[in-house]
Amino acid sequence: MDAPTKAFYEHSNAHRINTDAVIIQAIRSEYPGQNITTIPQFTCDLLQYAAAGQATAIPVDDFKDQDSLTLKWRMCFPPARRLDGDTGGLADELFYAKYLYIWQGREFVMYLVSGRDGLSNGHQPVRHWQGSDHQ
């Protein structure tokens, strides 16, 4: 298990103070000398950007003894109108995931991390962290 993954799971088992600080420190220890960029999802959704064909996001599975490092909820959405033959669908809400992100031929390691900090009981912010190009 890499340092960012370990830090996320350890941090998520206790009260949170600052997820940014914990994850940035773990990424820096895992990828020393790399530039790290924090990108709030509400300002730039990198997975939607990739889904639109502007980049490629490939899930990375570092767990050797578990099914996946990704932490997500799989939800079922009922159809809006059954009379039209709509069957509804499934969607995932991601809380933690790691990707190889390819944009304009450059490769990045991207972590998607969702977490509520401190005593906040509002929406959980989702952030993407990317290391600099490692080609």
Report a brief summary of the structure:
The protein has 135 residues and is α+β, with helices and mostly antiparallel strands. Helix content is 21%, strand content 34%.
Highlighted features:
135 residues; alpha+beta; 6-stranded antiparallel β-sheet; 3 helices; 21% helix
Question: How many separate helices?
Answer: 3
Alpha-carbon distance between the termini?
Answer: 22 Å
Overall geometric form: globular
Helical amount among residues, as a percent range?
10-25%
**Structural classification:** alpha+beta
N-to-C order of helices and strands: HHEHEEEEE
| Count of distinct strands | 6
Unreliable stretches (pLDDT < 50, length at least 5) are none
Q: How much of the polypeptide forms β-strand, as a percent range?
A: 25-35%
Give the oligomeric state of the chains in this entry, treating copies of one chain as homo and distinct chains as hetero. single chain
Q: What is the alpha-carbon Rg in Å?
A: 17 Å
Q: How many strands, what sense, and barrel or not for the largest sheet?
A: 6 strands, antiparallel
Overall number of domains: 1
Q: Residue-averaged pLDDT, rounded?
A: 79
Describe the secondary-structure layout.
Layout: H1 3-12, H2 19-30, E1 36-40, H3 46-51, E2 56-59, E3 71-77, E4 89-103, E5 106-114, E6 126-131
Antiparallel strand pairs: 1-6, 2-4, 3-4, 4-5, 5-6
Helix pairs in contact: 1-2
Please give a structural write-up.
The protein has 135 residues and is of the alpha+beta class. The protein is built from three helices and six strands; from the N terminus they run H-H-E-H-E-E-E-E-E. It has one domain. Strands 1, 2, 3, 4, 5 and 6 form a six-stranded antiparallel sheet that branches. Strand 4 and strand 5 form a beta hairpin. The mean pLDDT is 79.
